[in-house]
Amino acid sequence: MQVISYIHLRLTPTPMKYIIMLLLATILCRAQGQQVNTAKLDSFFNILDSNHKAMGTFVIRKDGKQVYARSLGFRAVEKDTLLSDSLTRYRIGSITKVFTATMIFQLIEEGKLSLDTRLARFYPKMPGASEITIGQLLSHRSGLMDFVNDLTDKRWIAGKHSREQILDSIAKKAPHFAPGSKQLYCNSGYLILAGIIEKITGKSYPEALDSRIAKRVGLKHTLSGVPNNQGTLEASAYGRRDYWTQITDMYFPNVIGVGDVLSTPVDMLKFLSALSSGKLVSEKSFAQMCSFDREQLFGMGLMMVPFYSQSGFGHNGATFGSFSMLASFPKSGISLAMSINGQQYSLNEITIAMLSMANNMPFDLPSFREIKLSAELLKSYTGEYSSAGLPVKITISQSNGQLQAQATGQSGFPLQAVSDNTFRFDTAGIKIVFKPEGGQMLFSQGARSFVFSKVR
């Protein structure tokens, strides 16, 4: 449920807002060679595993055939016999929205809806209901408040709430903008779309997903409507400092149709292949789902995934502790899916690594060797920094021989020294290079960099 917008310094994952703006690089480059470098992929995942950087399952397909799969860690750390494997089910966050959009387009093709159908037909009490269309809900152009990301108390979504309570909370908040005037990622739109599917079909969302998608294309390990941590195949979510600790995730019945689906990377790839090949919706509907461009990365259920000269389609997502990515690149025939239930290395960096090696492109394997620096040198980097390119300040402090960084209004995070002046925070794919002689630091994340100057 997240696009990677860590680039906006959201250093604590905000559920369902897509962490990856996929970034991946904007320069042009051609894939070199045709073979997937499986040996180097093994080396990469061995490094992540031995350094406790990730737990999860990772799968690559080429020209419709699976060419690589790897699972790391445990689906339940407390039970050291429960290793992750290809059957482990993960919470896939906002990739759920692709399933929701698919069913909406099925209903459109059946003549039960149109992209111009007004929200007032189903939810007349919503603000702007007479102007908001189905198409605007799909493309994040409704302007409605976001019942996940707009909340001051981010833990509210971890408690049990009825659908009526959640819809009432959306209806009582003023919209962000007039319908259709802007695009702003909105979880509320997809909660409403899930309700519309239920109203039209007379089935619950989980039942509709099972009959309209899962059974139709053979997704044996994909389901909705399951409360947290039910069944031995579900992966629990973990965070790590010195050891893996289970995370209290959002209460998933709150986000049905938005971010609750349980699935496996193998099932996700099967779903995306079926969707793009006309087995679930028509060619016209699929094209509408992909109605994005480089200015607006979100279409009507899918998002653009740029990788050098290639342009793919897919989605990704995050909960409080799980992170997933699903993408397909027609030019190279490469598609990938991953789900992570323990993250200490950014989803974005793993995606870049997998795509680089799947396309047999040059890629430097990461090194997590940490060095110790003197207290005097660390002190020279401390202070408050600002940048003309970002509306936040970053405070650098020193504690117990380690630098800490904290952006305005956000939680602090530790910086790992990898050279005398270079530091990393791998969980968010952040690198900071200090230039104390000029009172500056270079902040990089993904393919973007910003110069910060010390203000005090």
Task: Describe, in plain words, how this protein is organized in 3D.
The chain is α+β, with helices and mostly antiparallel strands and 456 residues long. The protein is 23% helix and 25% strand. The protein folds into two domains: 1-367, DD-peptidase/beta-lactamase superfamily (Beta-lactamase, 3-Layer(aba) Sandwich), CATH 3.40.710; 375-454, Lipocalin. It is built from ten helices and 20 strands. The strands form five sheets. An eight-stranded antiparallel β-barrel has the order 13-14-15-16-17-18-19-20. Strands 4-3-12-11-10-9 form a six-stranded antiparallel β-sheet, sandwiched between helices. Strand 9 (303-307) and strand 10 (310-318) form a beta hairpin. The protein is globular, with a radius of gyration of 22 Å. Residues 1-33 have low confidence and may be disordered. Residues 58-344 form the Beta-lactamase-related domain. One of its GO terms (molecular function) is carboxypeptidase activity. This is D-alanyl-D-alanine carboxypeptidase. InterPro entries: AmpC-like (IPR050491), Beta-lactam-related (IPR001466), Beta-lactam/transpept-like (IPR012338).
Provide a brief overview of the structure.
GO terms for molecular function: carboxypeptidase activity. The chain is an alpha+beta fold and 456 residues long.
List keywords for this structure.
2 domains; Lipocalin; 23% helix; Beta-lactamase; single chain; 456 residues; 6-stranded antiparallel sheet; alpha+beta; 8-stranded antiparallel β-barrel
